[in-house]
Structure formats: structure tokens, C-alpha cells
Design brief:
The complex is a heterodimer. Chain A is mainly alpha-helical. Chain A has a domain of 93 residues: RNA polymerase sigma factor, region 2, helix turn helix motif (Rna Polymerase Sigma Factor, Chain: A, Orthogonal Bundle), CATH 1.10.1740. In chain A, helix 1 crosses helix 2, helix 2 packs across helix 3 and helix 3 packs across helix 4. The longest helix of chain A has 25 residues. Chain A is elongated. The N and C termini of chain A lie far apart (42 Å). By secondary structure, chain B is of the alpha+beta class. Chain B folds into five domains: 53 residues; 72 residues; 85 residues, Alpha-Beta Plaits (2-Layer Sandwich), CATH 3.30.70; 53 residues; 52 residues. Chain B has a five-stranded mixed β-sheet with strand order 2-3-5-1-4. The chains are: A mainly alpha, B alpha+beta. At the A-B interface, helix 2, helix 3, helix 7, helix 8 and helix 10 of A face helix 1, helix 3, helix 4, helix 10 and helix 11 of B.
């Protein structure tokens, strides 16, 4: 969905158009949910927070000051909500097998086949990273945000984002190597 | 630029978000630095495995959307409760109804007291009078508030609904979306000037003139008239009507309000279902399969999209009708001293003929009236004449006889 489409939807949401709201939810909800899931590592909480983010979008649509992209703005809300939720509630560290089972439903044989050792190692390595590093990896490689956009989402200077991106990759590589040696 | 600086830019080179200058710097470094090229390769492999992992993530449950809708609907109900049902006119109306109710109760008590007093229930007359006065004071207060309520009703255009004694409970009717249409007929001195004033009033209210028909007269005796149709933001309708009414003498003012809430809610429900269907069909498409199946799903998807677009357009139209009210302003020239028409030759002959006929009718009426008078007074006159004649004859006889 293009930025122009997002803005058109947001204008309609500001006029209390529920259909536009649902379209926005369906367009961005899955990515926001995925990001939140990586940050809080709790499926139920991630789902709850996704609703929170979208309700916040509904409430603040008229206040969106076109400084950034709509998507960046929504991810910024998501990051903020995740930090808030984790502050209030100790993160529940999901057993790795639960994460992997949720990630590839048993009913789908194709996905089950994908649950290879590599995937298991990746999950294990990611789980060992800090929230900041997981966030920057997800935002850079999966969501494709720029350095300045990530700086806006996680609310820190651009230089910090660059450093985090660099060290997140180093840590992940080290964690993967450790997992490899442990096999 | 150091190797470390380039290494920090590489993740964003890999995801294609660097600006042209940074990209050029990274590319020139990559051409000479083998470590950097290896690092980039690793980053690309990492990106691909993270994307694969993201694609395999469990989908977002419909529960999340339902929960969000439940919350925004609850918030809307609360807002409606605060702004619609408990709005200023409704508050006055409720207060008025309460006071009127107390007044009526007091009046009933007073009448009951009067009846009992006639039966000799009250011992002290003074006590009875005091109660009577109190009852009348309360009753008058009730009437005064009722009058105030009536003034409010005539002032506020939506007061017909808002000032009703029993507004619908908010829980039953949380939203109250009306498409309003107003008609205004005015008599004005100068249609052209009023037209300009009306246009500027409408644009000042953030509205648009959607149609204009200015009927400039071709002959001097015809009256100048114009019809303006405009859309104004719904919340500015009342103020705009007040300002437009001030342009001339108000002949007619009418406001129609159509409740489009049911239609909007229905469209929203149907659109939600269609969007769910669309999402399901997309999942089927992504799953792949036989060409025939894919084509069938594609056809269904295209049908659903068509329905969504059609319904969405209707939904937008209905929302627009709620957000903007329509005004039809009819301006007519007011000419109290209009010069009478100068008659032509045919009209003059016609006039003479009519004048002649009128004169003839007048003459016949006069003759008939005279005859009627004579018939009525004839017997009296004949009696007087007969009495006079007899008296004169009697007198002559007395003189002539010795």
C-alpha cells in the first residue's frame, strides 16, 4: 500500500470512517503484530497490543502531522506500547518449542517441513538478543525502514540506530555460531 | 570514511534505504574492500532468513480486529451520550420537563386541596391560603420554564427532536446520523446583491454552491428571481441559515432530516463481511494449486472487489450526506411600488366594454331598487293620500253648508 493510499485512509479515519479503519487494520495489522510479537515474545499480549495500536490510530488520526510516513508513525506507536506493556508486566519468556510450534502450524505440512534445524537455531539466537537489537533487526531486514525512520520509531538518535544495527548483527552471528557449536 | 562507518551503513545499503550520497560512498568502499563485500553477503543471507521467518509467522487473528471495533464503538457510544443526548437543548428540555412536572403536581395538589377545603377538611383558612399561594407560585414557575422551552424549540432547528419530553435512551440509539436538507424562501430588494451576499456567506461557512439559476427578467414588469443550492458542513447549517435569513424578508423556512444511520450501519456490516471474504480468497490465491482453481478464485476475488468498491462508494456518499447539509435558497425580488402596466388598444376596448356593462348593471339595479321601494311604501303613501282627501272633503262640506 502506497503512502498516498495510507494518507487517504487516515484522512477517512479522522472523519470516523470505520470501513477505512478496517482497511488500515488489514493492511498494517499483520506487520505491526509481527513486530510486537518479536518485541514482547507473547502471542496473547502481542494481539492485545495490536488492537491497542489500532485504537490509538483511530483516536489520533486527526492529529497525524505529516512529518513522517503513516507506516513509520504506526510502528512508533507499536514500539511505545510494547515498551509500556513490558514495563508494567514482566516478559513471559516463551519456551522455544512453543514459539516454533506457533510459527509453523502442524496442519500445514509445507511449513512443518520448513521447521528445519536452521530455523530452530535462528529462533534460539534471536531469543538471546536484547529487545533493542531484535527491534532494529526486524525493522531493518523485514520491514525495510531507513535509519532515520527507525530512529523515529524507537525514539533515539540516528547514530544509535546505526550502532545498534551493526552490533545486533554481530550478536546474532555470535549466537548462531554458539548454537552451531552446541549441536 | 572508515571501514567501521561503512560497516554501519551496510545494513541500510542491503535494505535499499540509503540516500544517493551514502550509497555512492558504500559502493566505492565495496569495490576495494573484500571484508565489506563478505559482510554484505552475510547481511543479505540474514535478511533472507529473517524474511522467511516473518512469512511463516502465525496470522493475526480476527479477534484483534473485533476487539478494536468493540473499543471504538464503546467510545463512540460514550461520546454520543455526552454530546448528542446530553446536549445543551436536551439539558434545558429535561430541566423544563422536570420543573413542569413539579408544577403540574403542585397544581393537582392545589386542586385536591381546594376540593378537600370545600368539604371542610382544613380548619384554618389562613393555612389554606398560604398553601394555595405556594402551589400557584410553583405552577407559574412551571409555566415559565415551559415557555422558555418553547423559545428554545423555535430557535434551535433540531429542537423538535432534542426538546421532546422523552429523548430516546442513549443505549438504544447511540448514534444519530441525519442527512439534513433546508429550504429558504426570501423576498429581497436586490436579487443580485443578495445573491453575492449569500454566496459569500456560504463560502465563509466552508460550503460550496452546487447549483445556481439566476432568472434575470427580460421585461420591466417581470420580477427578478434566483435559486441557489449549496452544501455546507452539517455543524454550520443552523448558523448559515440564520445569516441567510437576515438577507431579506423570510417567506418560508423548512428543514427535512432523514435518518441514514441504519443504512450506514448496514453498509459497514456488509463491507466488513466482504473484506473478510476478500482476505480469505487472497489466502487461497497465495496457497497456489491447479491453474483452473486459481482462475476460479481470481474470478471470485474480482467479483468481491467489484462489490466492495460499489458499496464503499455508496457508503462514502451516505457519510458525505451526514457530514454536509444541503440548502436550497430561493430569492425573489420584492417590489411594492411596481409601475402598473400600460394597456394596449385591445385592452382599452375591452376596458370600455367592461365599464359599459358595469354602468348598465348599476342602472338596472337602481331601477329595480326604486320599484322595490315603491312596492314597499306604496300602501302607506296611498293611505296617507286617502286620509288627506277625506279630511279636505269634510272641511269643504262644513264651510259650504249653512
Amino acid at each position: 500500500m502506497s503512502e498516498a493510499d495510507d494518507r487517504a485512509l487516515l484522512e477517512r479515519i479522522a472523519r470516523r470512517d470505520r470501513i477505512a479503519f478496517e482497511a488500515f487494520f488489514r493492511a498494517h495489522g499483520p506487520a505491526v503484530h509481527r513486530f510486537l510479537r518479536d518485541l514482547v515474545r507473547d502471542d496473547g499480549l502481542a494481539e492485545e497490543l495490536t488492537s491497542d495500536v489500532m485504537v490509538e490510530v483511530w483516536r489520533s488520526a486527526s492529529k497525524f502531522g505529516a512529518r513522517s510516513r503513516v507506516r513509520t508513525w504506526a510502528f512508533g506507536i507499536a514500539h511505545h506500547k510494547a515498551i509500556d506493556a513490558l514495563r508494567k508486566r514482566r516478559p513471559i519468556a516463551l519456551p522455544l518449542d512453543a514459539v516454533l510450534d506457533a510459527a509453523s502450524p502442524a496442519s500445514d505440512p509445507e511449513a512443518a517441513a520448513l521447521r528445519s534445524d536452521d530455523r530452530r537455531r535462528l529462533e534460539r539466537a534471536l531469543a538471546s538478543l536484547s529487545l533493542e537489537h531484535r527491534a532494529v533487526l526486524e525493522l531493518t531486514y523485514v520491514e525495510g525502514f531507513s535509519q532515520s525512520e527507525i530512529a523515529e520509531i524507537v525514539d533515539c538518535p540516528v547514530a544509535t540506530v546505526k550502532t545498534r544495527a551493526f552490533y545486533a548483527k554481530q550478536r546474532l552471528r555470535d549466537a548462531l555460531a554458539t548454537a552451531e557449536n552446541a549441536r | 570514511m572508515s571501514e567501521h562507518d561503512v560497516a554501519e551503513l551496510l545494513p541500510f545499503y542491503a535494505n535499499g534505504t540509503l540516500d544517493a550520497a551514502e550509497r555512492a560512498r558504500v559502493e566505492s568502499e565495496l569495490a576495494t574492500c573484500a571484508t565489506c563485500a563478505t559482510e554484505l553477503g552475510e547481511l543479505r543471507a540474514l535478511a533472507s532468513s529473517l524474511q522467511g521467518r516473518a512469512d511463516a509467522a502465525p496470522p493475526l487473528s480476527e479477534r484483534a480486529i473485533d476487539a478494536a471495533f468493540a473499543r471504538i464503538n464503546a467510545a463512540a457510544s460514550m461520546t454520543a451520550l455526552r454530546t448528542s443526548w446530553w446536549s445543551a437543548p436536551a439539558r434545558y428540555a429535561t430541566a423544563a420537563v422536570l420543573v413542569a412536572g413539579i408544577g403540574a403536581a403542585a397544581a393537582a395538589a392545589y386542586h385536591a386541596h381546594e376540593a378537600r377545603e370545600a368539604d371542610g377538611e382544613y380548619v384554618t383558612v389562613a393555612n389554606g391560603i398560604a398553601r394555595e399561594q405556594t402551589a400557584q407560585r410553583v405552577y407559574r414557575a412551571g409555566q415559565a420554564t415551559q415557555a422558555e422551552q418553547n423559545v428554545n424549540a423555535s430557535n434551535a432547528s433540531r429542537a423538535a427532536a432534542a426538546a421532546a419530553p422523552a429523548p430516546p435512551p442513549a443505549a438504544v440509539r447511540a448514534q444519530h446520523r441525519l442527512a439534513r436538507k433546508a429550504e429558504l424562501d426570501l423576498l429581497v430588494r436586490d436579487v443580485e446583491a443578495s445573491l453575492k451576499a449569500a454566496q459569500s456567506t456560504i463560502s465563509a461557512a466552508g460550503g460550496d454552491v452546487t447549483s445556481l439559476s439566476d432568472d434575470t427578467p427580460r421585461t420591466a414588469d417581470a420580477v427578478h428571481g434566483a435559486l441557489v443550492e449549496a452544501d455546507v458542513p452539517a455543524d454550520r447549517l443552523d448558523a448559515t441559515l440564520e445569516r441567510l435569513s437576515a438577507l431579506g424578508a423570510l417567506q418560508n423556512r423548512k428543514i427535512d432530516a432523514e435518518d441514514v444511520d441504519d443504512a450506514i450501519v448496514d453498509e459497514e456490516a456488509r463491507l466488513r463481511n466482504l473484506r473478510r471474504e476478500e482476505a480469505d480468497l487472497r489466502k487461497l490465491m497465495d496457497r497456489g494449486g491447479h491453474v483452473g482453481d486459481i482462475l476460479q478464485v481470481q474470478q471470485q476475488l474480482s467479483d468481491v472487489r467489484g462489490q466492495i468498491e460499489e458499496l464503499d462508494a455508496q457508503h462514502q456518499h451516505d457519510l458525505h450526506r451526514v457530514a454536509t447539509s444541503t440548502i436550497a435558497l430561493n430569492l425573489t425580488e420584492d417590489r411594492p411600488n411596481a409601475t402598473p402596466a400600460k394597456p394596449g388598444p385591445t385592452a382599452r376596448i375591452d376596458g370600455a366594454w367592461r365599464a359599459g356593462l358595469t354602468a348598465l348593471a348599476d342602472t338596472i339595479t337602481a331601477v329595480l331598487a326604486t320599484i322595490a321601494w315603491c312596492v314597499a311604501f306604496g300602501p302607506v303613501l296611498l293611505t296617507i293620500a286617502a286620509v288627506g282627501y277625506v279630511a279636505i272633503r269634510a272641511a269643504k262640506k262644513r264651510i259650504t253648508s249653512p
